[in-house]
Specification:
By secondary structure, this protein is mainly α. The chain is built from nine helices and two strands. 72% of the residues lie in helices and 3% in strands.
């Protein structure tokens, strides 16, 4: 999220100043948003299955890109373990998600230790296992907090608050970044992000958080303001984390599944850490 700050060179397809095919991005984003709205209104528990499928695709995208860079992260333990993290959070709550994550980390270590046979010396074991555990935390563990939220009282409303504020961050960053962006924020990581775009994200996030928490959860508007401030940081940092990963791998997008956006992971970079923070803020304060 938030990749709209600044300008980029024109491409062969109709592109915005963010270097994306804007009509395609809007169409895909609108379709995904409409689908999530319908699910949350009429069948909130279906979101767990949607999250599980999305995390499997995102894990595959990231693992594929890592392997292309000769980083030997084991796909099967990450896929199976990621599903365990999501699904065990349903009956067992946070202990189920955390236990499944720890099990995934352990299996990943052992798998990588012996994946070339008992007689072969592991190569880059420490690097590859550390990155694999990072992927398990980055994708399914963070995503499990969305499933934990949907199981709470007013669960659908809590997820709505997460999505609304993250979208506000994206929109605010795009508008302010395109029209006013002049001062790069962290050019060594993401040259397109500007402080003006961050300010726009902050304003939109606070407004969106106040409105969402007040009218959807019928809670104190100050909680919404706090949520907005917290999520502008997690959404921005989530975007920067993925930007740095892609920079180190020498790629533009994690995948090509979503026209105008890239891959599934390119749409989840801001949402994943924000899911944890939203769960934490709303669980403690609402």
């Amino acid at each position: 999220m938030g990749k709209a700050d600044g300008a980029s060179a024109a491409t062969a397809t109709p592109a915005s100043k963010a270097g994306r095919n804007l009509p395609a991005a809007i169409a895909v984003g609108g379709g995904l948003g409409a689908g999530l709205i319908l699910i949350l209104i009429y069948a909130p528990l279906v979101l767990i299955g949607v999250v599980a499928v999305a995390m499997a695709i995102a894990t595959w995208e990231v693992t594929k890109r890592l392997r292309e860079a000769d980083i030997g992260v084991p796909l099967i333990p990450l896929l199976v373990g990621g599903q365990a993290v999501i699904w065990l959070s349903w009956p067992y709550g946070p202990p189920g998600a955390l236990g499944a994550f720890a099990g995934t980390a352990l299996v990943t270590m052992v798998w990588r230790l012996f994946d070339h046979g008992l007689k072969a010396t592991p190569r880059n074991f420490l690097r590859d296992t550390a990155i694999a555990v990072f992927v398990a935390a980055w994708i399914p563990l963070f995503a499990s907090f969305a499933t934990l939220m949907v199981l709470q009282d007013d669960g659908a409303g809590r997820v709505f608050c997460l999505l609304i504020v993250v979208v506000c961050s994206d929109v605010g960053g795009y508008v302010a970044g395109v029209f006013f962006g002049k001062h790069p924020m962290v050019p060594a990581i993401s040259p397109k992000k500007s402080w003006e775009g961050f300010a726009g994200s902050l304003v939109f996030c606070v407004i969106g958080g106040v409105l969402a928490v007040t009218f959807i959860l019928d809670a104190n508007p100050l909680i919404g303001a706090l949520l907005g401030v917290a999520l502008v940081f997690t959404a921005t940092l989530g975007d920067l984390i993925e930007s740095q990963v892609k920079r180190e791998l020498g790629i533009k997008d994690m995948g090509t599944l979503l026209p105008g956006h890239g891959g599934i992971m390119d749409r989840l970079d801001s949402i994943l850490p924000s899911a944890f923070v939203t769960w934490l803020v709303l669980t403690v304060l609402v």
